[in-house]
Amino acid sequence: MTHYAVELDRGALLAAWPTGRGELATTVAELPTRDPDATGDLLDLASALTWLSDVLWRCYTHPASSALSVEPNSEGWRRQQNRDAFPEVVPAVVDPELPDEQGLLVESYNPVVEAAHQVGRALHAVGDPGLTERVASDVGIELAAVEDAERGELTARARQAVALSRDDVSPVQVEAANQLLHDTLLEPSEELIDSIEPTAAAVAAAHWLHAAATVAAEAADIEITQVVQYADDIEALNFLVPTLVLTHLQTGTPPRAVVISMVREAALVADGRIPDVEALAARVTAARELVARHEATDPELHARLAMLGLCDLNPASPAPDLLEDLLDAIRGCYLVYAECADLDDDVAPEDEAASDAVTERVTAGFLTTVRAEAAQRRDRLI
Q1: What are the structural domain ranges in the chain?
Q2: Which residues contact 223 (CB under 8 A, 6 or more apart)?
Q3: Beta carbons within 8 Å of 121's beta carbon, 6+ residues apart
Q4: One digit per residue, pLDDT tens: the chain, 382 residues?
């Protein structure tokens, strides 16, 4: 989401938003006053704008289409109500609900509408028509960015979608990620991180990991679900999550279902909710067993408890973290393949040219075989 801040030295209202490689910022407006007594009202305005951005982008990360039901008063119904309120946002910013003569205030149950009114009330407290006009314009830009992201157009301010975790995916974005991985599997292009929504990219990466693990497992004569842990012995990487993904894929579950399920679970945990009671009970049992085997002050105990977690992904950024783990695991599959490939070559260590030629042949063989394997599974990508 976009964060708003007051720069007191220059007297400006700033907006900053994440991308895949850092944050971008812009000046929304020069502030009408630098009076210290007005600082509180300006900070209230920045806080209200940040909250408005949060609820707007939640409509993107939690679309009604991903809810179990859209029946009245269901979660999906509430999400659709929030999304349908977008046309009310700018008018509420310009002309908000204010307390009446008795100090009573009408507040909306819809968080999108109420957040917009709070921005409007903060602007009313500042009392500068020029600032209201510029803030309303910026809110319009924020709304357009969310709508662009929904269409898969991750440009300008909509680029912040690459730092978010959506619990649904666009087939267009998955296909774009699939093509990028086909072309640059072992060295994913910056475009994959900068321009593709991470949940969609993770779906494509899971598809390619399955193909890469299949090829590496055959070379090493091990089970597919053992490949990433095998790779961890060659080069340190996080093998737990990729192994879990491969385990699900081996049962026939499509990549999309695996990734979205894991991202949704983490999103529920981030909201302070329990996604799966039985899974939680199993984690509690595992934690109790660890406690029973260790002293309370044992550092190993605390490290292992931290690894258990409440879900398999980082609730703060599940999709970007999952994508990173899957890309590392694909590289790990290559390391396994390279170590186990039968090259029938006797190359002296000092012969760099010959060594480079062998490496190129191994890499080409891996990529060719993995691409063929991925093509055979193409129908399961979406």
Answers
A1: 3-163, 171-275+311-380
A2: 217
A3: 48, 96, 97, 98
A4: 999 999 988 889 999 999 878 899 999 999 887 677 778 999 999 999 999 999 999 999 999 988 888 899 999 999 999 999 999 999 999 999 998 888 888 889 999 999 999 999 999 999 999 999 999 999 999 999 999 999 888 989 999 999 999 988 888 899 999 999 999 999 888 888 888 999 999 999 999 999 999 999 999 999 999 999 999 999 988 898 999 999 999 999 999 999 999 998 888 887 777 766 677 667 677 667 767 776 666 666 666 666 666 777 888 889 999 999 999 999 999 999 998 876 555 555 555 665 667 788 889 999 999 999 999 988 887 7
